[in-house]
Amino acid sequence: MNAKLLPDYAGISIVNLMQSIAMACGSTPARYPQLGALPAAQLAAASHIVLLVIDGLGQRTLARHPACPNLQRHAIGTMTSVFPPTTASAITTFMTGLAPAQHGLTGWHMYLEEIDQTLAILPLTPRSGPVIILPEALPQRLFNQRTLYQQLDRECWVLAPQSIAGSPFNAWHARGAHRVAYGSQPEMFSLIAGLLRETETPRFIYAYYPDLDTHSHRYGTDSEQAQETLASLDVMFGVLLRDVQGTDSWLIATADHGFIDCPPERVVSLDQHPQLAALLTRPLCGERRAACCYVSQARRLAFETCVRQRLNHCADLRLSAELITSGWFGPPPYHPHLASRVGDYTLVMKDNWTIKDWLPGERRYPMLGVHGGFSADEMTVPLIALRV
Q: What's the pLDDT score for residue 131?
């Protein structure tokens, strides 16, 4: 299996890319070092900056498939994602400029002590039980950070698919920007080109594209569906390059995380480990590749013993507090609820193993492609950039 890799927040992560973009667009606070490969002064020399985030386009995927020559041709390096390398954590970094240590989003499922409930954080829906608080009312209670767009000294635009453009999560994290929903891949690229051509007023345009991630999860990273999606994306990227010549723009494309494939025989279901499940005070949170475990003080010795006896072959048991102090989520200062959101322990899965629990009534679904762990394939994303 590929090597382990942790985020490098000192100058080669997506956090550092966002610091470069922020400073190029007039934001003065410097929380993190700039990205060494693309410093702010270089970006600031152009009139416009476009950031295209292709969900799931890890460096492994980009390098393996020959049907993306336009993206490959303009790759200038690689970066690390954040921990965990997953959409909820990394997309929030792109939209706030903050590492998970500051924005506090630590995976798909999160226990939130402010409302004493476990939510799927992007749709803001409870994992189990009734909807107690409507999703529309949750952002102002759960998210206290400013968005990136509220800090930039230029006109900002956020392009998102129709399915999520108006969601409470997306609307909240797009504050300060003009929001536009698109219905298809060609429409997204057409909107980008139009926004660059229609004005000389400096703009920052953030565009998010989800379909590669969707197909990689469902069918696998090397599936025909994933490869076709990547190939069509590459063709449209080439069209964009021709359409925006003369606009004096930086075009940057990257991803929130990479992928690995997980065969069914490498899935650990807590259904098979009832003794271990009984020691948890609430369901697993976080990700299938990095599961946050909540365990009462009285049961911790029994929990540690049980994990080492039953899961030692597939999981590293780590104290979640140590992951915070070791800098996995980013440097201090820490979000006030960070510790409560990562639980007492984290099961960091080895090789291509995953772990999952299922609650009564929960729809069970397989995932062939997965991410959220700290393998190099999950953590490394490409940096594609050119000035036109």
A: 87
